[in-house]
Fold each of these.
Amino acid sequence: MTASQTYTIQGRTVTLPCVVRDASSGSATYLVDAAAARRLLPGPELDVVELWPGRALASLACIDYKDNDLGDYNEISVAFFVRERSAPRGLPVVSPLIGFVRARLATYIHRLPVNQAFTCEAGRTIWGFPKVVHDISFDYVEGRATCVWRADGKRVFTFSVPRGGKQRMPDTNLVTWTYLDGALHRTAFVSGAEGLGFRLGGAKLELGDHPIAAELRALGLPRRALATSWMEKMHGRFEAPEKR
């Protein structure tokens, strides 16, 4: 990396911030087993956010990137809402619920498969994102977006959410945590959207026979989602990671 935060990835130049100009995204938030989620965090600095004792907040998302500095590709995110262990816990139930509704909770991305090699290498090199290249397909039928994730010739899951919405999400400042070169890093990003739809429940999740599906079962999935969102036209900007 140079002083101007420019990287060379596979012979191409990537300059930060990385800009997303157009993408569609579906996500669902679940309550999962907190102990199982905590075992998936790689370092001691972070802890899962428990909505109430024993139940952590997790997110599944499928993103169809259409115009992005890192290319046109599909991505899946398995993430946990987290806090720094040194930060105050706040009030049980009330603090995490307010933080979730107001988009103030940070995330730790546990899995982030993509279907293109360039964005995989860029994400791992620049931010420490756990990207791998897997088979990810999208299908838009009858008002739903369906995403199928396959790895090693086996199905991990089929995930679908209702598509459509008329709301607008203003640019919102968000934070995600990663481990880069063995150290915790904080990445700030901004996300906004048009065509936002939000509802209670609504997601459908069918797990397959891949070992990652067994990992998701250990968290208590599939189960009813707390909430589901769809963003028809999403944009965003990822800044450089900051070492803690």
Note: The helical segments are 34-38, 94-101, 117-126, 211-218.
Amino acid sequence: MKRILISGGKGQLGQCLKNIIPNTSEFETVYVDINELDISNYQDVSKFLKKNSFDYCVNCAAYTAVDLAEDQPEMAQKVNTVGPKNLALACSKNNIVLIHISTDFVFDGEKTQPYIESDQTLPLGVYGKTKLEGEQEVINHLSSYFIIRTSWLYSVYGKNFVKTMLRLSNSTSDLKIVSDQIGSPTNAENLAKLIFKIISGNFKSYGLYHYSDYGKTSWYHFAKSIFKLKDIKVKISPIMSSEYPTAAKRPKYSVLDTKKTQKTFSFKAPDWEDSLKLCLSKL
């Protein structure tokens, strides 16, 4: 039997993992959130992992309020940097494999070709900076780890762009959406399937990986696709990032190259539009 700990279990990826990891005699999965386990408290993490003999820990916990992080850098650092460090230290002591989820926001977005794992990182804001520092803490304190950077995550759970667009369409018939930021929308269920494949397949190819659904688009075209697939009549206008100032600067291009991930784990990334259709069919 494989015993798996999921931190951030109430987030959208944590809830997708509940749907993907089977509840059988082969797998026993424990889902915790901050109320059950505060990953920023090393004593709590150390005791919890020592008391429970896990084989894997999947860290889905993150401070993801990108703009708010600019005003709350200490809070972002606690969750995104200190938390992964504590998990890595405790996993190292207890012989646990850590699967840590990171982000495309570790890059500055100045490239025009998909980012590979070895590309130089240069985050533009507090969120990306603290997530990058979290990656570095895992690398520095643990050898048996998988760090998976992902992008533009959405699902039927939690707060995300897809659900925000559907909610806004109920209250307005005229939307302005940024069109000069390019990335790859990723259905969290597909990321959950990759994580489960790594666990069930007993992979030992530890290291840093990129995963997103296949293809690229802008937030504007992403929104257009959502409304078209749901047959919602909304006037939607493209605007530049400069017309929609935010506290945190976003990378203009953050498409991830997933070839290493697909080859290592024999895992094909589905097309982002097909994945969106599946998600919308459940909403």
Note: The chain has one domain: 2-156+184-215+253-271.
Amino acid sequence: MTAESPPEVSLDDQCPRCGERFQPFQEYCLECGARLPGSYTHGRPVSGSSSRWLWATVLALLLVALVAGAIVAVAATDNGSDQAARSKAPGGRKATAPRAKAVPVPATTGLRVTKAARAKAARAAPVTWPAGKAAYTVVLLSIETSAGRTGADTAVRNAIKAGLRDVGVLDSSGFSSIRSGFYVVFSGVYDTIQEANSALAAARSSGYELAYPREITPKSS
């Protein structure tokens, strides 16, 4: 089944107060701070959370336990064979007898699982906007700084649990392309608007149906 392409963003809507263009479903005008018609006030709860990393870890532990059990069984077999041969040999000396072949241990399997788990854990950590970088992102929601940062940090954790990558929060006061006074929860750092539009589908399918792309330009030092 072919996934539908994410809808392109229209820039035809304008703020009724200052005339600044705004994106669909944007909550506040980033130029004058006015509340926009049809604004998105609160982030929707994230639908579904991925637990595949937990299952991968459980499977890895089970595999390690099975391998350890095989090693113990082989060692016990070897020890029993040695004791039986020694008891039958004259003077109690160990008689020469063919040794059982050891079961090969897939030593690299646990390493591969560990690397995959570490890579996923790294992607799940909140990110910060690259210093001095002008790029595009997908805005999941924005919260006024007067409300405190707790809500924004909670939204970041929820977005990560939903499976979104490169999720973080930025203070709009450090950027010239958006109006000061907001904590912006974003997902991804993209060089082009096309890349941001391509990532939009993942954000909306994860429960953020009103997410939209936005250009982020840091203030010059």
Note: Helices lie at 52-88, 107-124, 150-161, 193-205.
Amino acid sequence: MKKISIALATYNEKDNISKCLKSVQGWADEIIVVDGTSSDGTSDIAESYGAKVITKPNNKNFHINKQIAIDECSAQWILQLDADEVVSVGLRREIDRLVISNSALNGYWIPRKNWFLGRFLTKGGQYPDYTLRLYRNGKGKLPQKDVHEQAIVEGEVGFLKEDLLHYPYKDFKAYMKKWQRYNIFAADILRIKLKNKSAIEHIKVFFLELLLKPLWWFVWTYGRHKGFVDGWQGFIFSLFSSLRFPVSYIEYLRFKV
């Protein structure tokens, strides 16, 4: 019986997919990739690592394609990955021990290390960046409503100790490109949330998104969670993660015009 399935959704990930799949090749029993019609050869690379590739339209909310990949998995346990993530040797060994011990839990939160502009972030609320990615087949699913959502797992879940390594940005330009894409998606969510709402609700959101949230987030990440320990990278991360609130709101206003 298959023990471990890997589930991924991809779109033009040729620069990342090899490193990701190499980290699970020969360890996982199957790899399921749902590709959103990539034009850069991502599908061919995935197939070269033995992945089963399913082609679907590239949805703005990529969790839709992730869920399709999850539904296609046939092993007892599913490890859902992003193409810019690498499963460390320690994490593979820890997961193997859990499968062998026939754990009574249905899912596990995994600590994630985030690589940002030349270093792994250790503070600013960025480590351990727990993400719920390992769950029994049939016990976990994605809400498919938000880009930062976590899986919903039926039953008890636990925590792993070994790291999932995350390399989301090749450079600052790549960071800004993804940052803006997330902002546009958040603006669309705001548009849906504020549809047919009262003027008072609009004023409330105006002050929250333009003033209160960015100030609170910067103080929380850079001060309370000591983002300054990570040097200039910590400052840049706290600053731009704070600015996503007003920028998303401005994008929402552009939608209305």
Note: The radius of gyration is 19 Å.
